[in-house]
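Entry 14. Ran structure prediction on the chain below.
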Amino acid sequence: MKRFQEILMKDFGWKLLSVAIATIMWFMVISINQPVDTRTYSTMLTLTGTETLTARGLTVANAQELENTKISIKVKAQRTALDRLSQRQAELISANVDVSGLTYAQSGDKITLPVNVMVANGTTGYTIESKVPVSVEVHVETLASKEFPVSVTLNGAVPHNATLSEPQFSTPTVMAKGPKSVIDRIMAVRVTVDATQAVGQDAISVKPVAYDRDGVTVNGVTFSEESITVSYRLQEQKQIQIQVQTTGQVAAGYHVTEVSCNPQTVTIMGTAETLQSVGEIVLEPLDISNATASVSKVYPLENYLPKGVVFPKGMKTVQVMAHIIKSADKTVTIPTTQIALQNQQSQLAYTMPETISVTLLGDTTALESVSAESLTAMIDVSGLEMGEHTVHVVWQLPDGVTAEPTTVVLHIEEHIPQEPEAELPTPEE
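Output, structure tokens:
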């Protein structure tokens, strides 16, 4: 043992120097083969801990701006480690700003928070030399929501031989959520559908987009539905007539010259099967009771169509007018032989005065066309027994002419056939 100690301690200084030199040379070799270097990387900033603000009815107003912020990070490590970092940069480098600690924040606050950077999930061997920016400003605002109807923009032209139905949505409205200042800017929520897809597909899935009053996209908002399904059907067209009647009587001394519709015909759209069931549109009667002037009414056409049938864009109403004017009058006397008796009984005889007078109402031109020779009438005598009866006369009148109520006294008695006279013998010559 003593011998070993003597050998170990002999020339100890030189031995210690040799070890030091060897150690230095080893570090030099290592440094040559594995040199330390610095490289700069970049990543996008993310927000974390937002649920703390959401629970208090708040949000980060400039969240989109922050998430578009690029963070530049300078990292120091051995070259081989840096090479590995470069290959998996998206996976191994992250930067975030944590807002979970903003339990004191109020709407309108602007708070500076540090940017947190992590490299290689915190693995040793990497040193973060610097980061730019070091901090960011977070704008706190009230979290608002509002429901909007969904409309569609058709992008491109529909083939000339195709007509599309109105779009059907999987949901007619969506709830938009975001900072109050952002929600207040929204004027419309639309989806955009390619025209060729609308013709060729049963259902198209598209994302809703918010727009302001100038048609500019509003960012920083989320929707209750990430996507909306829009569907169209190919339509056929058919032209049909519009019909309307009047109800009631105009005031005494007035008459209706015409009932007009504008438009008189309309084009409807639907599938071939649904269009077969529609022959015309019959509107609710126009009430002209006691009218002394023309009566007009606007009808909403959509109330008169069956399900599945629609009008082209722009066609929504029809205007109906009953043209009413003050009547001229004319008294005409005709022989009662111009009155036809309907449903007579062969065993009864019917007699009336030789003539009857009637007061006709209408415009001057129409009245001029009526003469005593051209005027005819009829009386229905069905069910009348023998005796004297006051009956109403139904006049056969041209358009635009009416008659005041007219009655005549009708006598009914038993019909006695007359026997033929006997022939007298011829005197002999």
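The chain has a mean pLDDT of 86. Will compare against last week's run tomorrow.
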